[in-house]
C-alpha cells in the first residue's frame, strides 16, 4: 500500500475512537490518536473528560513498551497543543518521548495553538505530515471549529414532523415519532452543550429537555420568553439543570436559573448567540417550535438540520419549517425516517 493510504487507514481509526469523547470534553475538542510501530497499532487514546489528559497523552501512556516510541508514528486528528491549559503541551511530550513521525488530520484554529504545535514539532526534528483525511477531521471538530472561526456555537435545528408536514397543535402537545427516535434525540442532547425552545413550546409542551433516556450530561436549557409567561411551576424552572430564560423584564442569577434581560427592540437571535459565545458554549440544538426554528432559518444562523418524519397524517396543525439545505444523511427507524441536511449557504460571517 502507498504511504498516503496507510496514513489514511490509521487516521480513520483515530477518527473512530475520537467519537468516544463527543459531549464530554467541552470546551476542548474531542480528538483521537493512535501510535503505530512497524505497521502495528501499539497504543490508542481519545480525549478524556474536560480537565483530563488529551488524546496524545492517553495514546502514549497506553504503549506497553515505551522504548518503541522512538521508532513509531503518532497519528492524531487535530494538531497537538503547544500551550499550558489544564494539562501541559502535548507537542512537548511528543518531543520528549522522541517520537519519530507525527501525522496530523487538521491544524487547530484555537488562537493558543494555531500552527504553534506543528512548528514546535518541526523545529525539534520531528517528521510531520499534515492534512491526512482533512475533511473528515474538520467534520469531526465542526463544533469546536465553528466556535473559534465564526465566533458562535455550532447550531443544529431539530424537529419531528408528520408525513404531511405538520409538527404541532396550538393547544396541546402531540407526540409524532417513535420510542427509538426519542432515545436517539436524548443521545443527541448529551452531545450538545445547550438546547433551546420558544415560548409556545415551553407553554404547550412543558418540556424537560434533559437526557433521561441516555447516559451523559444534560445540556444547558434555554427558552425565549419576552414577558416571562412560562409558569414557575413548569419543568424549565425546576433547577434540575442550568437554565437561561431570555426575557425583556428581569436579570436574575440563581444556582441553576438565569433570567437574562435582552433588548427585544433589536434582533433577538444575534443577542442569544452572542451570550452563548461569551459563555463559551460551543454547540446548540434548537428543538422548536416552528416559529423559533423559522427565525434561525431566516437569519441563516444554522449549520445542520435533523428532521424526523413519521408516517402519520394529521391534515391540520402547525406546519413544520421549510428548509433549503444539502442532504447529507438518510436513516430509517421502523416507521420513522431521519433526514440530515447541511447548510451550505454562505453568509458574511462565514
Ligand atoms: N414536532 C416537534 O418537533 C415540535 C413540536 N412543537 C410544537 O410546536 C408548537 C409551538 O410552536 P410555535 O407556535 O411555532 O412556537 P415556538 O415554540 O416557536 O414559540 C414562538 C415564540 O417564542 C418567542 N420567540 C422565539 N424565538 C424568538 C425570536 N427569535 N424573536 C422573538 N421571539 C422569539 C416568541 O414569544 P413571544 O410571543 O413572547 O414574543 C414567539 O412567539 C407546539 O404545538 C409544540 O407542541 C414544539 C417543538 C418541537
Ligand atoms: N413532539 C415531538 C418532539 N418534541 C420536542 O421534544 C420536547 C419534549 O422534550 P421532553 O419533555 O424532554 O420529552 C418538546 O418540547 C419538543 O421540543 N420531539 C420529537 O423527537 N418527536 C416528537 O414527536
Ligand atoms: Zn494536547
Automatic annotation (TrEMBL):
<comment type="function">
    <text>Converts 2,5-diamino-6-(ribosylamino)-4(3h)-pyrimidinone 5'-phosphate into 5-amino-6-(ribosylamino)-2,4(1h,3h)-pyrimidinedione 5'-phosphate.</text>
</comment>
<dbReference type="Pfam" id="PF00383">
    <property type="entry name" value="dCMP_cyt_deam_1"/>
</dbReference>
<dbReference type="InterPro" id="IPR016193">
    <property type="entry name" value="Cytidine_deaminase-like"/>
</dbReference>
<feature type="domain" description="CMP/dCMP-type deaminase">
    <location>
        <begin position="5"/>
        <end position="121"/>
    </location>
</feature>
<feature type="binding site">
    <location>
        <position position="54"/>
    </location>
    <ligand>
        <name>Zn(2+)</name>
    </ligand>
</feature>
<keyword id="KW-0862">Zinc</keyword>
<dbReference type="GO" id="GO:0008703">
    <property type="term" value="F:5-amino-6-(5-phosphoribosylamino)uracil reductase activity"/>
</dbReference>
<dbReference type="InterPro" id="IPR002734">
    <property type="entry name" value="RibDG_C"/>
</dbReference>
<protein>
    <recommendedName>
        <fullName>Riboflavin biosynthesis protein RibD</fullName>
        <ecNumber>3.5.4.26</ecNumber>
        <ecNumber>1.1.1.193</ecNumber>
    </recommendedName>
</protein>
<feature type="binding site">
    <location>
        <position position="201"/>
    </location>
    <ligand>
        <name>NADP(+)</name>
    </ligand>
</feature>
<feature type="binding site">
    <location>
        <position position="175"/>
    </location>
    <ligand>
        <name>NADP(+)</name>
    </ligand>
</feature>
<feature type="binding site">
    <location>
        <position position="205"/>
    </location>
    <ligand>
        <name>NADP(+)</name>
    </ligand>
</feature>
<dbReference type="GO" id="GO:0008835">
    <property type="term" value="F:diaminohydroxyphosphoribosylaminopyrimidine deaminase activity"/>
</dbReference>
<comment type="similarity">
    <text>In the C-terminal section; belongs to the HTP reductase family.</text>
</comment>
<comment type="similarity">
    <text>In the N-terminal section; belongs to the cytidine and deoxycytidylate deaminase family.</text>
</comment>
<dbReference type="InterPro" id="IPR002125">
    <property type="entry name" value="CMP_dCMP_dom"/>
</dbReference>
<feature type="binding site">
    <location>
        <position position="160"/>
    </location>
    <ligand>
        <name>NADP(+)</name>
    </ligand>
</feature>
<dbReference type="GO" id="GO:0008270">
    <property type="term" value="F:zinc ion binding"/>
</dbReference>
<keyword id="KW-0511">Multifunctional enzyme</keyword>
<keyword id="KW-0560">Oxidoreductase</keyword>
<keyword id="KW-0479">Metal-binding</keyword>
<feature type="binding site">
    <location>
        <position position="189"/>
    </location>
    <ligand>
        <name>substrate</name>
    </ligand>
</feature>
<feature type="binding site">
    <location>
        <position position="287"/>
    </location>
    <ligand>
        <name>substrate</name>
    </ligand>
</feature>
<feature type="active site" description="Proton donor">
    <location>
        <position position="56"/>
    </location>
</feature>
<dbReference type="GO" id="GO:0009231">
    <property type="term" value="P:riboflavin biosynthetic process"/>
</dbReference>
<dbReference type="InterPro" id="IPR016192">
    <property type="entry name" value="APOBEC/CMP_deaminase_Zn-bd"/>
</dbReference>
<dbReference type="InterPro" id="IPR050765">
    <property type="entry name" value="Riboflavin_Biosynth_HTPR"/>
</dbReference>
<dbReference type="InterPro" id="IPR024072">
    <property type="entry name" value="DHFR-like_dom_sf"/>
</dbReference>
<keyword id="KW-0521">NADP</keyword>
<dbReference type="InterPro" id="IPR004794">
    <property type="entry name" value="Eubact_RibD"/>
</dbReference>
<comment type="pathway">
    <text>Cofactor biosynthesis; riboflavin biosynthesis; 5-amino-6-(D-ribitylamino)uracil from GTP: step 2/4.</text>
</comment>
<feature type="binding site">
    <location>
        <position position="90"/>
    </location>
    <ligand>
        <name>Zn(2+)</name>
    </ligand>
</feature>
<feature type="binding site">
    <location>
        <position position="81"/>
    </location>
    <ligand>
        <name>Zn(2+)</name>
    </ligand>
</feature>
<feature type="binding site">
    <location>
        <position position="209"/>
    </location>
    <ligand>
        <name>substrate</name>
    </ligand>
</feature>
<dbReference type="Pfam" id="PF01872">
    <property type="entry name" value="RibD_C"/>
</dbReference>
<feature type="binding site">
    <location>
        <position position="212"/>
    </location>
    <ligand>
        <name>substrate</name>
    </ligand>
</feature>
<keyword id="KW-0378">Hydrolase</keyword>
<keyword id="KW-0686">Riboflavin biosynthesis</keyword>
<comment type="pathway">
    <text>Cofactor biosynthesis; riboflavin biosynthesis; 5-amino-6-(D-ribitylamino)uracil from GTP: step 3/4.</text>
</comment>
